[in-house]
Specification:
By secondary structure, this protein is mainly alpha-helical. The protein is 67% helix and 2% strand. Helix 5 (89-116) packs across helix 6 (129-146).
Length: 228
């Protein structure tokens, strides 16, 4: 063991007293096991503490939700300019607004990554399924933004993935998360109910065919005779 590990063991046993900054960091980063974010920022680092406080700020979630709603509205407006070949002033402004949204979402992701860590420890950023979806959407927007101007089929697919942005609204709302998780967990039960309904309809279909087979069938030539 190195010197830092020995010192940490002594601090946990109470042999060495912890600094006030370490005590405050332990109270602050509750549930976050990542000691060194990106192997650079400890829990006593001022920049990481600032990022954590910013991510827990009351207005932070409201600002993110507002940006997601505005970006969703912008995606709806962009559908009116899909078939336009020549770049208009409106399209130029739309691209700048899109870049601004991408930068804002990148900053939001970096704040969470800095405060929570990447993936190695429990409760890290990429250990959560919703954060994985956010990370995928942000990374595709970064690739799309960096390769802007190139006409490649792969880039067109990435641009189509912009339509996934409204899904980020689910990841930032706790109540919606609970509803979606409940629906996902109940898919097995819903599938079993559908099987039972299918069997019931099949039984009545067989009975109906057995009782009424050929009884409602008739043929007449009157309508053809009248037209001749």
């Amino acid at each position: 063991m190195d010197e830092d590990q020995i010192v940490n063991i002594f601090k946990e046993q109470g042999i060495i007293k912890k600094d006030k900054s370490e005590i405050a960091a332990q109270k602050m980063f509750v549930g976050i096991e990542c000691e060194w974010s990106f192997f650079l920022f400890s829990k006593q680092n001022r920049l990481r503490i600032m990022a954590y406080k910013l991510s827990k700020w009351v207005w932070w979630e409201r600002i993110v939700l507002t940006l997601i709603m505005l970006s969703s509205v912008k995606l709806a407006v962009d559908t009116y300019t899909i078939e336009e070949v020549e770049e208009t002033p409106f399209m130029a402004v739309s691209k700048k607004i899109d870049i601004a949204f991408n930068v804002a979402f990148i900053i939001e992701m970096l704040v969470k990554l800095l405060s929570m860590g990447l993936i190695m420890d429990n409760n890290a950023y990429l250990r959560d399924e919703w954060n994985q979806m956010d990370f995928f959407i942000v990374m595709t927007s970064i690739i799309d933004m960096s390769l802007d101007g190139l006409e490649i089929k792969f880039i067109k697919i990435l641009r189509m993935l912009r339509t996934l942005r409204p899904l980020r609204f689910l990841s930032t709302n706790v109540d919606l998360k609970l509803i979606v998780n409940a629906l996902i967990s109940s898919l097995g039960g819903i599938f079993n109910v559908l099987i039972v309904l299918f069997v019931v309809f099949l039984i009545y279909a067989i009975i109906g065919v057995s009782f009424y087979q050929g009884k409602f069938f008739y043929c007449t030539e009157d309508m053809y005779i009248l037209h001749t």
